[in-house]
Amino acid sequence: MDIEMPTVETIKKLVQAQIGVAFVPRMCVQPEVLAGQLVEVPMKELTVARKIHLVYPSHRHLSHAARAFLDLVKGVAEEV
């Protein structure tokens, strides 16, 4: 069964409680791995695509820098 959790902390607690396994960024679990609380399983030839969303207030004027960044991100997204 697939489930999504709102935070990495919640995911770590569920894994530590032996509720399941998870894919998480290594930097988020490094202390627990070093302390022996979690075990890292190396995986080879695994490509994971992740959706990332950019959000901004819809009824607010964006600064020139924010608008330029948004235009840049939209341009990159269109290429993919």
Please sum up the structure shown.
The chain has 80 residues and is mainly alpha-helical.
Structure in words:
With 80 residues, this protein is mostly helical. The chain has helices at residues 8-16, 26-34, 64-79. The protein contains 3 helices and no strands. The longest helix is centred in the last third of the chain and has 16 residues, at 64-79. The chain is elongated, with a radius of gyration of 18 Å.
Number of helical elements: 3
Taking Cα atoms only, what radius of gyration do you get, to the nearest Å?
Answer: 18 Å
Mean pLDDT comes to: 86
Tell me about the largest β-sheet.
none
- Unreliable stretches (pLDDT < 50, length at least 5) are none
Q: How much strand?
A: under 5%
- What's the number of extended β-strand segments? 0
**SSE pattern, N- to C-terminal:** HHH
Structural class: mainly alpha
Q: Report the helical percentage.
A: 40-55%
Distance separating the two termini:
30 Å
Shape: elongated
